[in-house]
Amino acid sequence: MLNQSLKFPKADILVIDDTPENLNLLSAMLTEQGYKVRSVTKGSTGLRGANAVPPDLILLDVNMPEMNGYEVCQNLKANDRTREIPVIFISALGDVLDKIKAFAVGGVDYITKPFQLEEVLARIENHLTIRQLQQQLQAQNQQLQQEIHDRTKAEEKFAKVFRSSPNPIAIATVSEARFLDANPSFLRISGYSLEEVIGHTATELDFGKNTVAFAQKIQLLPKTGSLYNQEFEFSTKCGEVKTILISIELIDLAGVPCALLIANDITERKRLENEFISLVSHELRTPLTSTMGALDLLGAGQLGTLTAQGQKVLSIATTNTERLMRLVNDILDLERMKSGKIFMRRAKCNVAELLITATEAMQAMADKLQVQLIVNPLTIEFWADSDRLLQTLTNLLSNAIKFSEPGDRVWISAILSESKTVDSQENQNSLTSSPNYVLITIQDEGRGIPEDKLQIIFERFQQVDASDSRNKGGTGLGLAICRNIVQQHNGKIWVQSILGEGSTFYVLLPLTS
């Protein structure tokens, strides 16, 4: 134990006393208790020692030749290196004025000789503890000051980027989607002043038909996580409709969960993109039609008999031309829908007839691929564009059949949903109360869809596997068209899937227009 105490002393104590007997007594006593002790008989020597290697505590006599204890203490407190060292006076002087003077020059305690061993040890331990706590507090304060400095610098940097960014940026509370701040770019694109934005919710400001969905995405941020490059239609104060890409990050402001919204105006880009797609599609359709006609003539043998190799090449050319025709038609279809050039011609139609017609249309494909189609119709009438819904159902059935194995089954069914609306595909299977809906499901036993693809499967040119367009004959636009048709019926479409077990597509439609 003694060796351990010597190796790891509890503290370093400097004793300054001109009486050797006192020095020896204090040194022996403190060393026995596990302290490292340095003893000197002169005040000047003690000052040099304390400055060279500052001790944890100093025991100081008052009456000494050349330089008394008060002068030594004053010198210690005047030096930055030794100012914080606690000094305990030990003196035979017991007058109150002597004690007052000791405290006045910076002493922390005063012990009167003759002293008691236990009293000296208790006071030393007490002041060492106080000093240790002071050092911890100073370290914590320094750390806190550094954190405050770093945070202030970060906030200044963020504020500078926030204000000067060319991208529209705003901050809103998660709970109510209520705006707390907006940068000049956001104000320019929206047409609102800062006073008109701050304190108001997205719903109150009415940013267009996507306002409710926009607010819901903010409120669901703690559950769904960050949102990146989501396309929205944005209505300005003067009614101008813009297309924006918006990203949302969850941030914390003074303990309040907030959403950082960063937008990118892609209105002009979308216009050019749509014009380009429309132009290219129209320009492609005419030569493709001519090419298809020529291939039909070759296939009919009207231009001569082809060899077996020629028939094989002709078959490949016909298949690829048909796929290209489908792609062009799908692009035109989707662009006309998005631009409002295709209107839903709603009329009374029967759900059962739609399901049966869609099944009959896909029966030949199912038989060819040895897939069993099972239909569970629901006899109920509702207002819809039957041709467009039939297009949606046959598209979904076609996908289910294509991605099934021989012997698999595909179900199409409908139920009257008296108390079901859906929080869209982002919330997958969340169903809450709202009457007058029909829910159509298309379920398969195919390969399923990976979880990371569920959020983007309804976007244009998005496929589970890049080879699907080649192997399955898809264009990557079918589900985008389905979503557009369903949305124009004020309905919702989403999918649930388990990889390797199959997928279920849901189409929720209102019974009334």
Description:
The chain has 4 domains: 2-137, Response regulator (Rossmann fold), CATH 3.40.50; 165-265, 2-Layer Sandwich (Beta-Lactamase), CATH 3.30.450.20; 269-338; 347-510, Heat Shock Protein 90 (2-Layer Sandwich). With 513 residues, the chain is α/β, with parallel strands linked by helices. The chain contains 17 helices and 19 strands. It has a 5-stranded parallel β-sheet, with helices on both faces. Helix 12 packs antiparallel against helix 13 (308-338), helix 13 (308-338) runs parallel beside helix 17 (478-488) and helix 14 packs parallel to helix 15. A hairpin with a 2-residue loop joins strand 9 and strand 10 (256-265). Helices cover 47% and strands 22% of the residues. The protein is elongated. It has helices spanning 2-7, 20-32, 43-52, 69-78, 96-104, 117-164, 184-190, 194-197, 202-205, 211-219, 221-224, 267-300, 308-338, 351-368, 386-402, 468-471, 478-488; strands spanning 12-16, 36-40, 57-61, 87-91, 109-112, 169-173, 179-182, 227-235, 241-253, 256-265, 347-350, 372-376, 381-384, 409-417, 421-422, 431-432, 437-444, 492-498, 502-510.
Identify the notable features of this structure and list them briefly.
19 strands, 17 helices, 5-stranded parallel β-sheet, alpha/beta, coiled coil, EC 2.7.13.3, Beta-Lactamase, 5-stranded antiparallel β-sheet, 513 residues, Rossmann fold, disordered N terminus
